[in-house]
Design goal:
9 helices
């Protein structure tokens, strides 16, 4: 099935469940009730339990937002209060210099701090909380491999997927309930939110009937 097909069917079931009515004010993915192993968000909706892989879901959100902003010709940059300076290879130094236009379009401001070190002065605003050094190494690697013009023209989606993967919230981070609910609301607004950029599901529904079968209620 197409990536959006599953989400479309489930979204329809959530908004128009057979034999039930959606409670007034209850969103399709419900409201967060907790987190398991700092990996999965648990939420309760009209039909039972929703399980969300928070990294996969956040990665999809970032990808779609980055894609949308790049379609508008430029990704917003977030200046760093203190430039991040790190040692770079000769290839990375030359790639950064030759790919300045492409890097700017993606929201980066990177320049030489010395013959052997790069300084990052701005990053995409959506990725301000990412591991900047690791992110820049990966972006420069892709730009070197594909070439700056080809990367943004032919390999654009792969480049954006790289940015989203490195910028997404990592497993092991404890989220507050407001943060979990914000993620759920974002998922409801984004198209194709049922799968991450690697094709893995971002969420699953367990209905009350599923739970009753698991615990053999009514037997």
């Amino acid at each position: 099935a197409e990536p959006g097909a599953y989400y479309g069917m489930v979204a329809e079931a959530l908004t128009e469940p057979e034999g039930t009515e959606q409670p007034a004010g209850m969103p399709p993915l419900g409201y967060a009730i907790g987190q398991v192993a700092d990996i999965y968000v648990l939420a309760e909706n009209a039909h039972g339990l929703v399980l969300v892989d928070m990294h996969a879901a956040h990665e999809r959100m970032l990808y779609e937002r980055l894609k949308s902003t790049l379609d508008e010709e430029r990704i917003a940059a977030q200046p760093l209060l203190i430039p991040l300076v790190f040692q770079a290879t000769g290839l990375e130094m030359s790639t950064a210099a030759e790919s300045r236009t492409a890097l700017t379009a993606m929201g980066f401001e990177i320049g030489a701090a010395s013959p052997t070190h790069l300084a990052v002065r701005a990053v995409p605003a959506l990725l301000a909380k990412a591991d900047v050094e690791q992110l820049v190494h990966r972006v420069l690697q892709d730009l070197c491999e594909f070439g700056a013009s080809r990367a943004l023209a032919e390999r654009r989606n792969e480049m954006l997927a790289t940015l989203a993967c490195h910028g997404a919230v990592r497993a092991g981070r404890r989220l507050s309930l407001p943060e979990m609910n914000a993620l759920l609301r974002d998922m409801e607004r984004i198209e194709r939110a049922d799968q991450c950029n690697h094709g893995r599901p971002t969420w699953r529904q367990l209905t009350l009937a599923d739970l009753d079968r698991m615990f053999m209620r009514g037997k």
